[in-house]
Specification:
201 residues; alpha/beta; seven-stranded mixed beta sheet; globular
Length: 201
Amino acid sequence: MTQDGDTVATITDLDAIPRPPRYERILARSQDIEFPMNSDVLTGSLLRTLAASKPGGAILELGTGCGVGTSWLLDGMDASSSLISIDTERRYQSIAAEELGADPRLTLLLQDGGAYLSGCHRRFDLIYADAWPGKYSHLDDALRLLEPGGIYVGDDMLPQPNWPDGHGATADALLARFDRLEGFAVTRLAWSTGLILAVRR
């Protein structure tokens, strides 16, 4: 509480984080089809901030889902930035297309993320890996696409309800791989769903 009686949000007050345009509609539609893998609010807020740190930036999202994470990225981007978002599931990505597809900064690709990474030769300023490709497979392909100073974000590194049996060991192995990564500054965040951030030196 301030001296004039206004209530001040605490740092743990998630309701105080403003949501992007279309966020509530996308979230509701994703819940209607029981999509279980939306980016959480804390991760989304960080994505928006990181996108804002890259004016005119080229951004890649691996795993569109229904577009929740996409909406956070778009909300942080300036008018000259661009976002490519990739998924293999038409049913999910169609929601993102209907809710966000009119934004000229966004390109939605319905294809395998690993195949895209293997054949891609452009560079990105920010990569958000929210799918198996670019994280548990094709990681080297994703990292080679980062510009110097480019940021890689991987989420869901803490145990999640939808993890299959044995996935904890897979996640631990990925963290160990990042610990050995040369040419990057790496930070583990035991926060939100568990994040790994890597910046190309």
